[in-house]
Amino acid sequence: MGRTLAEKVWDDHVVRRAEGEPDLLFIDLHLLHEVTSPQAFDGLRKNGRQVRRLDLTIATEDHNTPTIDIDKPIADPVSRVQLETLRKNCAEFGVRLHPLGDVEQGVVHVVGPQLGLTQPGTTVVCGDSHTSTHGAFGALAFGIGTSQVEHVLATQTLPLAPFKTMAITVEGELPDGVTAKDLILAIIARIGTGGGQGYVLEYRGSAIEKLSMEARMTICNMSIEAGARAGMIAPDKTTFDYLEGRVHAPQGEDWDAAVEYWKTLKTDEDAVFDAEVVIKADELSPFVTWGTNPGQGAPLSANVPDPASYEDASERLAAEKALEYMGLTAGQPLRDINVDTVFVGSCTNGRIEDLRNAAAVIEGRKVADGVRMLVVPGSVRVALQAMDEGLDKVFTAAGAEWRHAGCSMCLGMNPDQLAPGERSASTSNRNFEGRQGKGGRTHLVSPQVAAATAVLGHLASPADLSDVRTPVEA
Amino acid sequence: MEAFTTHTGRAVPLRRSNVDTDQIIPAHWLKKVTRDGFEDGLFEAWRKDSEFVLNKPERKGATVLVAGPDFGTGSSREHAVWALQNYGFKTVISSRFADIFRGNSLKNGLLTVVLDQKVVDALWELTERDPNAEITVDLQDRQVRAEGVTADFELDENARWRLLNGLDDISITLQNEPDIASYEARRPAFKPSTIQA
Questions:
Q1: Is residue B53 domain-resident?
Q2: Whether A430 and B22 lie within 8 Å, measured CB to CB
Q3: What CATH number is associated with residue B47?
Q4: Which residues of B touch A102 (CB under 8 A)?
Q5: A410 annotated as a binding-site residue
Q6: Disordered: where is this region (chain A) (predicted)?
Q7: Neighbours of A49 (CB within 10 A)
Q8: Which of A61, A105, B96, B119 has the most beta carbons within 10 angstroms of its beta carbon?
Q9: Does A176 touch chain B (CB under 8 A)?
Q10: Residue A372 and residue A409: Cα distance in Å, rounded?
């Protein structure tokens, strides 16, 4: 019987397979950041262990880093200690680090792909659940805990429990104005936050094949929000074109050998998935969340659902609690929800195409009075590219704040946070209670919806905007 | 890792689904660089409400958390496990756990037990009715016992063996060093390297 893409990559990394034991898998790339690594380095020190493969390990600073005044000392002493700890650990063990201020610094899941380190058929791990992002390249990529970070540092392997496979087949074409973000939010609403549990998802079908690498990363990024172990997309010409010429992509003969191998990385015709979900792309429209988990979403044109309409008792209770926390009423049109803050950024939507998409909507328009809009590039490279294209000027002319790269308001570990009761439209990945600041309320949206929402002050899509634009003053 | 064989203790019934790791331990606690001192951050936002179940005097000293489905979703933060352990929990029961949280818990000796929602309902009813009711989680026999409840649970033999003996994963893996070295020797040359040219 044929094998799925995930099974092929898994099989190619088995170091040891024995009866009654989990497979021991080799890890091709280990990404580190400051939050989930300090206790792992402590463990190495305590046991007199070294980092086994420095050549497969790389670190960046992202969660705690400020997005303004980055040349000044970090104000929060606890954040500062965490960053200093990473710097000390990387120096002591010899790990390559891109600290705040470095040109390669940025959100770990933006940095790996842009350096060309994330490649098809590799295993990629990081102490961060959004490691699933890298699956867009046909890599088997997943988030791990700190004990596993230590395990990979010491052994470059992980013992892993077997997984099931689920095909998410998206046929047709996404309508105009409907993005990868809308698609993944719709998928999560369909299968639920636990729907992917135990599965590696493979996104496939004509609508997926048409997507750019950056859009594919947005989709794989949020696989974890469906509870999945990982999300993958088979590599194709789009993948190879994205990688060719990047700093760490293979060169010369290695490139040819790599591409030859990468071309074998697709699910065999006779392979069988453990589960399959089919989505019709043509039926989708801009999608937003109304609740406090990423599965609580609906088309922007819909109303806030009535908890009483849920048959399942725990879903009903969850919806009641969500509406209470979010300060929403059942039946209220989603378009009537006013926001205080708009956040464009994160490992979900902080890449150059995302910034271009948001800029195209907001160019010649103004952020509504009383609304704060933060634009935080996913990496310094993304920021430089955007500035080269003049996107920073488009945002600032509209009244948005152009910030330095980092995780920022996605989780508010740095000073970029919502105040209690404040409401955001955010291109990030989680709408959990307090995620963006204590008492903050989050609606997950695409970059285009974020930009339109900033202009109108309530949840909106670009289609809701008039064609009138104010020319930017020179 | 601390070994887990059998534990008996009073319970905290947590009637919520989708308790994500941001609720278990909010992000600002993640700035700490140690594995301890997270107990005050556990369910920090909810604990501001005096009616929250963890704040009830009769739940003081409880060691078994009985949670709703999809417990531990979201972030990979192992701090969520440390916070539960620092607070005093030895075991968590739910009908469904998020994968990463489950993996993290078993690596730290916090036993996560999957039971049918019907059994979880019964444990909720029992422990809400009688805060002194005790629940026994027996890893030896893979069974949960409480007044009127006897339920077997599954846990793969390898994970069970490691928990019962409190074994450290890294030491076990390093026993297979020749396998790792031999795999490394046959990796293709085109695989990525982080070394700067």
A1: yes
A2: yes
A3: 3.20.19.10
A4: none
A5: yes
A6: 418-442
A7: 17
A8: A61
A9: no
A10: 12
Residue B168, pLDDT > 70, answer yes
* E strand map for chain B: 6-14, 64-67, 91-94, 111-114, 134-138, 143-146, 149-152
Q: Which of residues 280-309 of A touch B (CB under 8 A)?
A: 292-293, 295
State residue A466 phi and psi, 5-degree precision.
-75, 165
Residue B140, domain extent: 6-185
**Mean pLDDT, chain B, whole residue set:** 96
Q: Phi and psi for A164 in degrees, rounded to 5?
A: -105, 165
Residue with tokens 């290695």: A254
Find how far residue B189's CA is from the centre of its chain.
40
Characterize the bridge pairing of strands A23-26 and A157-160: antiparallel
Give the residue, A113 or A469, on which the prediction is more confident. Answer: A113
| Residues of B in Cβ contact (< 8 Å) with A148 | 103-104, 107
Nearest CA in chain A to B192: A117
Q: Do A39 and B195 touch (CB under 8 A)?
A: no
Cα Rg of chain B, angstroms: 19
Query: Which residue do the tokens 């009138």 mark?
Result: A468
List of chain B residues whose C-beta atoms are within 8 Å of the C-beta of residue A96: 194-196
Rounded to an integer, what is the distance from CA B31 to the centroid of its chain? 21
Query: Tokens representing A413?
Result: 């570990």
**What is d(CA A60, CA A115) in angstroms, rounded to the nearest whole number?**
12
- A126 annotated ligand binder: no
For residue A427, the model assigns a pLDDT of: 98
Structural domains of chain A sorted by starting position, each given as residue range(s) with its CATH number in brackets: 5-275 (3.30.499.10), 289-464 (3.30.499.10)
Query: Does the pLDDT at position B67 exceed 90?
Result: yes
Task: With beta carbons under 8 A apart, name residues in chain B contacting A257.
Answer: 188-190
Structure-block tokens of residue B139: 């890893």
CA distance B71 to B74: 9
In terms of Cα–Cα distance, which of B70, B61, B57 is closest to B23? B70
For chain A, say whether B51 makes contact (Cβ under 8 Å). Answer: no
Burial class (CB in 10 A: 0-12, 13-18, 19+), A205: middle
| Residue B168 included in any domain | yes
pLDDT confidence bin for A474, thresholds 50/70/90:
very low
Average pLDDT over residues B62-69: 98
Q: Model confidence at A469, in pLDDT bands (50, 70, 90)?
A: confident
How much is the pLDDT for A36? 97
**A184 close to A219: Cβ distance less than 8 angstroms:** yes
Say if residue A90 carries a ligand binding annotation: no
pLDDT for A470: 64
Say what the pLDDT of residue A473 is: 46
Residues in A closer than 8 angstroms to B51, CB to CB, are none
Residue B154 clears pLDDT 50, i.e. is over it:
yes
pTM confidence score: 0.96
Residue A124's pLDDT band (cuts 50, 70, 90): very high
Alpha helix stretches (DSSP H) within A173-305? 180-191, 206-209, 213-221, 237-243, 252-262
Within-domain flag for B40 = yes
Count: domains in chain B:
1
